[in-house]
Amino acid sequence: MGHSLATRRVLLAGVGTLLAAPSLAQGDWPQRPVRIVVGFPAGGTTDILGRLAAQILQEALGQSFIVENRPGAGSNIAAQAVLRAPADGYTLLLGSPGTNAINPHLYSNAGYDPLTDFMPISQIAEVPNLIAAHPSLGVHDAAGLIALAKQRRLSYGETSIGGSTHLAAELFRVMAEIQATHVPYRGSAPMMTDLLPGRIDFGTDNLPSILPHIRSGALVPIGVTSRARWPSAPEIPAIAETLPGYEVVAWFGLVAPRGTPPEVIARVNAALRAGLGKPEMVSRLAELGARPIPGTPEEYQARNAAEFARLGELIRRVGIRAD
User: Fold this and answer.
1) Which residues cross the membrane (predicted)?
2) Cα atoms found within 13 Å of the Cα of residue 171, Cβ hemisphere only
3) Which of 124, 196, 205, 117 is nearest to 166 (CA)?
4) Would you say residue 21 lies in a domain?
5) What secondary structure does DSSP assign to 58-117, as a single string?
6) What tens digit of pLDDT does each residue of 186-223 get?
């Protein structure tokens, strides 16, 4: 699917949903707690950002926003649960690269279409991934890791089959022209259980999850997966400095089931944009290795459509399947 076709498809779906949605008086919502469903276990980047979003919305809208972790099937379980919920604004999904663009390319039946079944509200933040090595390898950058991997077969881990960490690792392997043994994990914590003691040689995780281990000296940074060095960790080189054109960045935001009243979308969007613009929240995200990227629902739709096409092409190229 080309970028323009995908973009037209999701924009048309969004227009149709807005036209069909029931009206809602400005003061009617929220009158009870709102769930934000997260498709990964507690402690990872998606969970951290979901809780920050909940904090912003609770302070702005005067109602409880409760994070509910529903891990499994690369976040398909969470997405399907939100899709089945009433489109009344009381169940939202913390969208990740998997739910927004990747899973339909990985699973024979993901159970939803990210471009038509959900209404984007606003992006929250984007983060690069980080490739890190165990200190015992004796390498300190991408060039060193590539050279070692061409001398002997190394093992590498990632935190989600077909997720952005997996795609970042696979693109690195393909562009570096190396062979390595893939060890999949379900989440950051299980991978760290093996990477920190050196049972695997290197691994890829979202920057916020892995950065504390870099700063403690437990792991050696090989490079961030953004196109250039990341502002909150400028001392870490970008993989693209060694492999020009390399880039796999994760982006996160809130989405709602199709049919959610447009007034709800507008209220959540306005609250998120205001909260993410506060200096203390910008600083908090920077400490985590993330960068706020609030914007309009239309901007979020356009990014999802473009990445749906780009990452789908990469998945087909390296032959990843989750079932």
Assistant:
1) none
2) 29
3) 205
4) yes
5) HHHHSS-EEEEE---GGGHHHHHHHHHS-SSSSEEEEE-HIIIIIHHHHSTT-SS-TTTS
6) 888 999 999 999 999 999 998 888 989 999 999 999 99
Residue after which a domain boundary falls, among 188, 221, 241: 241
Contacts with 218 (C-beta within 8 Å, 6 or more apart), sequence order: 135, 196
Residue 235 belongs to a domain:
yes
Mean pLDDT of 96-102: 93
Do both 46 and 84 map to the same domain? yes
Residue 300 lies in a domain: yes
Residue 323 lies in a domain: no
Give the domain CATH number at 135.
3.40.190.10
Beta bridge partners of 223: 131
Residue 313 shares a structural domain with residue 234:
no
pTM across the whole model: 0.80
Q: Classify strands 65-69 and 34-38 as parallel, antiparallel or unpaired.
A: parallel
The sign of the CA dihedral 296, 302, 305, 306 is negative
Range of the domain at 186: 128-241
Tokens (6 digits) for 109: 């039946």
